[in-house]
Amino acid sequence: MSTQHLEDNFSKVFAAPEFITPYLHFFAAETEMRLVVLLGKESLTAEDIAARMSGRTEEINGLLHEAFNRQIINQETKDGSIYYSASNFGSRLDNFCMFGNYTVIPRKVRKKLDEWCFEEYLKRNDYFKKVIDADPEYDNCHNEWVLLLDEVEALIDAAPVIRVLPCDCKMMADNCDYSREICLTLDPKRITDRTGGRDLTKEEAKQLVRKLDREGLMHTGGPPNWKEAGPSVVCNCCSCCCYPFRAAKQLGTKGKWPKARYVAELDREKCISCGLCAGRCHFAAFNVDKVDQTAGLKKAISFNADLCWGCGLCVNTCPVQAIRLVEIPGI
In whole angstroms, what is the distance from residue 155 CA to residue 175 CA? Predict the structure, then answer.
């Protein structure tokens, strides 16, 4: 089988977008492509695969182990035996952008991948429609709540395990200079032998989220009933890269998902018009306006509560406590 024929067949089985075909060799080695093409839509044991690939089982096991860790194939146990099946491009892309040498892909291609992946994200998470059409049903949603820093620390205190990972949204979009290692998994059921990342102590995790808060990242996570069900995840988000906020802006779910439970309130008597809040706000709720006065050109802060998502970044940065958060009634 020629290289071109192999890549075409691999792309078809792997459900890769057509524009990425010239770059598939960055995502999978030739032997991994042959493995995926061989599997097709089947689930096979290592012995079956070794027989079809005319290789020794020991060698095939090494290939399967590596391909599984790289999310090129999946595995499941049936009747006491391990069966392997082909994964898909979306899963491999997620793994590669977080843990591979993703920037080897030209930037213009990475931008197309981000657009493709975002559209797939919207299709895959069709439960967003519930949020749009009715009261949110958060049983299957993610990034359910916009969280305050002290709430994040409470989730960390309750977490039986803490694993920090790079943010796939940020690695994919690459629209800003915020930190990349920002996603916390707090539920041991969400951690598998190919999750990746590194474990943190509670104090290390708190130091990290405080740093990210100072940096200007918003906090999301849940679930809303985490005190009963246990904490799940905490993400530290920007509005320009992170898929939940991008999706919320596109779908019009502001305030419903991710759920905003607070709104900022500005005390204009205390405000010194330093502009720090405007620099921190991801949604332009605060702005620095120039005011033409006889004494000279001075600044004034304008605030639009309708644009506020209740993340609290403005409160954390105001040097004169001129901003506070007010609970939204009925939330």
Answer: 29
